[in-house]
Amino acid sequence: MSGHSKWSTIKRKKGANDAKRGRMFTRLIKEITIAAREGGGDPETNPGLRLAVQNAKGANMPKDNIERAIKKATGDDAAKYEETTFEGYAPNGIAVFVECLTDNNNRTVASVRSLFNKYGGNLGTNGSLGFLFDRKGIFTISKNDDLDMDDFELELIDGGAEEIETDDDMVTVTCAMEDFGNLNKKLEEMGVEPVSADLQRIPNDTKVLDINSAVTVLRLVDALEENDDVQNVFHNLEMTEELEAELEKQ
């Protein structure tokens, strides 16, 4: 399992407190806002909005919240978010790629730079780390007793899946960025609604650190993820079994 997939799994297993849940909803509402503003407020005719709503449902966002976000996004007073990215290094040379949605770029630049400095990292120039990551489609799907995994995996491969990983309750499917739409359509045809489906930046190579150094890196990752302007944080730290065990104790 890739380092980032392991990190996502650990966070999911640990669960989210109310504050983290609130931040997750804030990020999902931003995605709904941008999708609805760009393609209209009807999920049936707007694939981007349909995907954003699907992810919101997967995170157990109440239906009223979703509908309110769509209505607000299509109104005259909708927030104007823009996408921006940051690239830099955490301590010990770990590459960190940050994706943001913001309505105030100056604020976001200042806060992200401050967090890198506070946790011993260095913010670099855009484009300096892009070659270290590949953009991949990542789908997480709940396992259930009705799912015949052999047939299911064959269907996924037919839809473009490159890698299929399973744990106790989830299936994580990876595909090439250009196959993301095809695989999403395949799941729709099968009547399978993923818990989440998005494009992520997967490291081409990962770096192993000792436990203390790795935990220091992940403090920066956590701090960035807690920032309201940050949507996603990707890194190339190897999530070893020892590190995974240490994180699950926290």
Which terms summarize this structure?
single chain; 250 residues; alpha+beta; Arc Repressor Mutant, subunit A; Alpha-Beta Plaits; 3 domains; four-stranded antiparallel sheet; 9 helices; 23% strand; globular
Rg computed from alpha carbons, rounded to a whole number of angstroms: 18 Å
- End-to-end span in angstroms? 21 Å
Described by strand count, sense and barrel closure, the largest sheet is:
4 strands, antiparallel
Q: What is the second-level CATH architecture of the largest domain?
A: 2-Layer Sandwich
Number of domains: 3
Q: Judging from the principal axes of the Cα atoms, what is the shape?
A: globular
In the predicted model, the low-confidence regions spanning at least 5 consecutive residues are none
Summing up helix and strand content along with how strands pair, one would put the structural category as alpha+beta
Percent of residues in β-strands: 15-25%
The strand order across the widest sheet is 3-1-2-8
Helix content: 40-55%
Count of runs of 4 or more consecutive helical residues? 9
CATH-wise, what's the superfamily of the largest domain?
Answer: YebC, transcriptional regulation domain
Query: What is the fold named in CATH at topology level of the largest domain?
Result: Alpha-Beta Plaits
Order of helices and strands: HHHHEEHEEHEEHEHEH
Give the C-level CATH assignment of the largest domain.
Alpha Beta
Instruction: Report the strand count.
Output: 8
- Mean pLDDT equals 88
